[in-house]
Inverse folding.
């Protein structure tokens, strides 16, 4: 049965409209994919930064324990916690190598502990600030580790 001109026009218009709609959906999918990729990129940046902070903090613990061997037992559980934080953020623990980039520990043991506590506080504050740009799962991890850092700072200075 031959199609009349009106029916052909309607079919052509319907096909053109469907193509426009599909293209529009595709554009929305691309925009959503780009937003997802940007969020993942930001999450990876925050995670890498947190791992670097943990590595530097671990180095600070190592330098303090090396400079003040009498503090090594007191620092060991806190250092172990920082090492777990490093791995939780995807960082790698140093293999029998001295951690680089750590500041020298103060000559006085109490000053060395105070400096370590200050570093813990600064790192905890930076992690708390990073919560705004982190996705929910990473934000929970950052908040937990920031709270642990605040507890470490307290424990390092409670007897001072």
């Amino acid at each position: 049965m031959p199609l009349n001109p009106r029916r052909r026009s309607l079919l052509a218009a319907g096909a053109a409209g469907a193509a426009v709609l599909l293209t529009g959906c595709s554009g929305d999918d691309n925009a959503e994919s780009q937003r997802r990729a940007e969020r993942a990129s930001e999450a990876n940046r925050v995670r890498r930064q947190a791992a670097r902070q943990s590595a530097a903090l671990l180095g600070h613990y190592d330098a303090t324990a090396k400079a003040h061997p009498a503090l090594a037992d007191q620092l060991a559980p806190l250092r172990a916690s920082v090492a777990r934080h490093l791995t939780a953020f995807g960082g790698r623990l140093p293999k029998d190598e001295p951690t680089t980039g750590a500041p020298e520990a103060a000559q006085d043991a109490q000053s060395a502990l105070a400096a370590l506590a200050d570093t813990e506080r600064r790192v905890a504050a930076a992690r708390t600030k990073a919560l705004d740009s982190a996705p929910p799962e990473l934000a929970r991890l950052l908040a937990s580790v920031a709270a642990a850092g605040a507890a470490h700072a307290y424990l390092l200075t409670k007897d001072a």
